[in-house]
Amino acid sequence: MFRNIIYKMKTILKPLGCEVRGIDLKTENRPEIIKQIQEDVTEHRILIFKDQGIISGDRHVEISRWFGELESTFYKHKKSPHPDVFRVSNDENEGCTGVGRSGWHIDGTFQPAPFSYSLYHMESVPKEGHTLFIPLTELIQSLDKDTYNTWNRAWMVSDRRSSPIHPLIYSHPRTGKPVLCFHLGMTTEFIWDYKLPSESIASHEEYEELLDSINSKINQDNGKYIYVHKWEPGDFIISDNLAVGHFAHSSTQAPRSKVGLRVLHRTTIKGTHPPKK
User: What is the per-residue burial (b if ≥16 Cβ within 10 Å, else e) of 134-150?
Assistant: First the structure.
């Protein structure tokens, strides 16, 4: 295959993701390679580029533009290498802390169209500080009929003021496969059967049950669908944000004195397709 002539890929966890070797993202600009990477992200949902060294903020942004217009809605940190790069850390003097810990999610659920891609680079790798990913299509396909029907009735409302209302289950705009628009830590309420005559706001008990149901299914069978990424120096990840849920492990906030400094840079690409049934 073309990609194997130019770079090598290795599946990390069926059915999710691949490691990529043989590409230097600091200098790569060939149109045919960029196109292949774009196609591979859609197919595999996560690409983990190994041995990339340190990628500057400017270059991180350049790579991000392969996938569309950047959208930077996050808090700015004084040590961020670029205005469009979100800098997170386990040390508040080095980056924003506590990020990604409120629950499993995709990025940008508070937007009319959630972010289409997220790109991550670990500038400083600690002894611990994993990121967890889960394929959303396979999660949905694993549901029993009653659970699927319940999730499929639900629409989520983000905790940000004037946030749009999104269906919990919808079709991915590029692949057509079922995916989730969800954030277990930033959802204020669920609405049943939105825009139908039977529309109603979920009770507090129903709200809690649905959050628990999603979390339980993600962790079913000892988390068999979860990929735990243990960061190594030089890792750069490009993910299809709409197809993959993620969550920051508790160790991401372990004290610097115990695990070393953790500095992660992230960019997000503006969504172009609001979730639709």
Answer: bbbbebbeebeeebeeb
Check: CB of residue 223 under 8 Å from CB of residue 104.
no
Q: How far apart are CA 190 and CA 207, in angstroms?
A: 6
What is the pLDDT averaged over residues 222-251? Answer: 95
Residue 66 parent element (H or E) = none
Q: Given a cut of 70, is residue 2 above it in pLDDT?
A: no
Give residue 5's pLDDT: 60
Q: Domain spans of the chain?
A: 1-276
For tokens 């396909």, name the residue: 141
H helix or E strand, kind and range, residue 149:
helix 145-153
| CA nearest neighbour of 225 among 145, 132, 146, 150 | 132
CB 139 within 8 A of CB 151: no
Residue pair 79/73 in contact (Cβ under 8 Å)? The answer is no
* Rounded distance between C-alpha atoms, residue 21 and residue 8, angstroms: 5
Confidence tier at 1 by pLDDT (50, 70, 90) = low
For residue 96 the two structure tokens come to 């924003």
Q: Does domain 1-276 have CATH number 3.30.1330.40?
A: no
Per-residue model confidence as pLDDT tens digits over 47-70: 999 999 999 999 999 999 999 999
The model scores a pTM over 0.85: yes
How far apart, in whole angstroms, are the C-alpha atoms of residue 208 and residue 238? 32
Helices 145-153 and 204-218: angle between axes, nearest 10 degrees = 130
Provide the pLDDT confidence category of residue 238 given band limits of 50, 70 and 90.
very high
**Could you tell me how far CA 59 lies from the centroid of its own chain?**
20
